[in-house]
Amino acid sequence: MSHHYFDNASTTKVDSRVLEVMLPYFTEFYGNASSNHDFGKISKNAIDKARVQVSELINANENEVIFTSGATESINFALKGFVESNFEKGNHIITVKTEHKAVLATCEYLETKGIEVTYLNVDKEGLISLSELQNAIRPDTFLISVMYANNETGVLQSINEIGNIAKDNGITFFCDATQAVGKIKVDVEADHIDMLCFSGHKVNGPKGIGILFKKQKIELTPLIHGGGQEMGLRAGTYNTPLIVGLGKACEIAKNEFESNNDTIESRSKLLLQELKSIKGASIIGNESSKVENIIDVILPGLDSNIFISKVNDFALSNGSACTSQIIESSHVLKAMGLIESECNQSIRISFNKDVSEGSIKLLIENIKAKLKNM
Description:
The chain is α/β, with parallel strands linked by helices. The protein is about 40% helix and about 15% strand.
């Protein structure tokens, strides 16, 4: 088992305080939140509280938060649900070539249904051109989908400017903020975001729970028909323990934002300094526009697949956890102009406040030793 965990972009450890608040809803307060008795009301009240905790983290109204199984479901729900419910408003979506596969695969599916999709390029630093976005807008453009922070490089897009462009053109703006929430201050009102998603397991909450924020004016076709839960948009019995856990994780992320990020910033500076001491090492993405906790680096001479599988004491990644089991070059890095050999020499290092300076130095020692023996 890896002793040094550097794969927080794929998933995080559940905070002990999150687990503590979840446990009673498995054993003691197990009522169905849709039932009209005291057991049910206890669960319903806990869900209502969690909805407020989530909304406060992203500056939304609690009535605009829909609980889902995670960001992948939320993405499918937002894109498919919007298209089906708003087909009379347009037929054109704008997104980006470096989006998460959940967005790209959903857009490809929608293309088979007659929707036209423009996939914006990024520059070598992973950023889109706002002028290219503006020029891509057509009279029938009705949805823009751009992720906040890239899951492989940590690069942050200019979300506020994109939100303003969407608003000025009367276009709905959806944002996958899975890697941004808890790492930077996400504000759906200030950034004119109409729909947004993230997963609990990226913010030290449980797996299997996430949210779709949707402004009340936005119409979506229900994802699951049935008992009418989640404003009639996602039927099914509430998973109260996971919802409670997500709410607590969001509360902690909000309350401890400053202290957590001070620690992450100092660890990031140390890691970058150590990586740059390695001859030929090259940081991927715009260093001035990225989340601090994700660093993607090219290490010439290193076969990342072999290194990651052999360095047993460290949990690392060579890209998105959704695709890293498949040995193929990252679509994100390819879109940024990297060639095959560079993709195969890259590793993603992602961490949180719990990583120690000692772990960082041990990682660098292992990388240097491996390169020396190549």
